[in-house]
Amino acid sequence: MATAPTKQSILHLYHSMLKTSQSFSSYNFRTYFVRRTKSTFREIQNETDPAKLSAFYSEKAKELAVLKRSAIVNQLYGGWRLVVEEQKPERERGDT
Fold first, then answer.
1. Using CA atoms, how far apart are residues 94 and 88, in angstroms rounded to an integer?
2. pLDDT (tens digit, 9 = 90+) per residue, 49-69?
3. Using an 8 Å Cβ cutoff, are 16 and 33 in contact?
4. Other beta carbons within 10 Å of 54
5. Among the listed residues 30, 27, 41, 35, the one whose alpha carbon sits nearest the alpha carbon of residue 87
6. pTM of the entire structure?
7. H helical segments located in the chain
């Protein structure tokens, strides 16, 4: 019988996935992965079956590794900011 991961470990995984999702430089990828992470963890919120929880945890841990690699690649090849994103003010030469 599989032992269920603790609530604290699932919350840590959730926060890690949210943080990694926020690190995408592309607005579309960033918002998609944040929404997807929230909805996925909302579905498993009231689950008590240890086998399902353990399978969910191991699957999402693998997905987190893929998400981290994808975020790094997206940061390397990030494009222009979109109009809907908050624009940083342009600095002038004398500003620090």
1. 17
2. 889 999 999 999 999 999 999
3. no
4. 15
5. 27
6. 0.80
7. 7-22, 27-43, 50-76
